[in-house]
Design a protein that fits this description.
The protein is an alpha+beta fold and 300 residues long. The chain has helices spanning 12-23, 27-37, 91-98, 121-139, 144-167, 169-178, 180-191, 280-291; strands at residues 41-50, 53-56, 58-60, 66-70, 85-90, 107-110, 117-120, 205-212, 215-221, 232-240, 245-253, 260-265, 271-276.
Amino acid sequence: MEEKMTMEITNDRLEEAIREYAKERTRERLSDVLNLLRPTKLLVPAMLKAPDQPVPCLLKNGKEEQFLVVYTSKAQIPEEPKSQAILSMPFPACNNIVVKPELKLNGMVINPFSDNLVLKSELVQKLHDADEKAAKMKQVKMTPAQFQVFVKRQVEFGILPKRLFAEGEEFVNRLCDEKESFVNEIFAQAFKEPKLYPYSEKDYSVMALDIAEDLTLVRIDLPEKGLVAPLCCRIYVTFNPQTKEAGYYTIETGKEKNTRMLGELRADGTRADHGEAPVEGAELQKIMDLAKGAGAELTS
């Protein structure tokens, strides 16, 4: 007895793509077929081991190879032999059957009595693996707040220092000239999607000081919104115009309440921990001392 289907399944565009692929078996036309297959439901003939235990039907060819049989619509299913049940299954669920090692299937055949499109087990396995990977990616999807922390940390501890040490004086000059606009541009580019970027130039404050002939110092105040450990509330960039030596120092939000830590990122990618940051009024002198080599004994 054939199981009644609650909705009629038709896949006209898919069937047309399969016919086009049969005329011209190119990679592009196969991609068209697969792109239409992946989100669709197919009809799978089955036998009933028990009223609630359908077992999909398999088709064996002359080489003794076995395939899962699926159809794109009810019109494609032959009247004879009749199946005890017709299952409506998403394409990925059909793939899950084909890749089961205990079944030892050679693939899947779509509309065997008309189009006879065979997807070999190697291809089905690749599609199955891609679906599994996509599912895992969805499971670790970040909230907007988590994404903001992730990207900001990449900029503060990666993109900014790498650009400073790679571009040197050019980077420092742009920072001094363009100030908030330049910093905002770097952060905005890292977010890629404008809708996810929660800041503007007004959220940053950049102050450039020519302390001496051998020291330019730039203080960058970062947005307070969304500030959590270990993100930075402030960054100091130093540059010696004579030796072209740059420095990058971070005032980081500590894990303990009301604590701030002082760090340094170096050109070789290593990080120095300078312990708890001094009070804001003493920060500038501390950074100047570190930039000129004083207090180096505190680094690790």
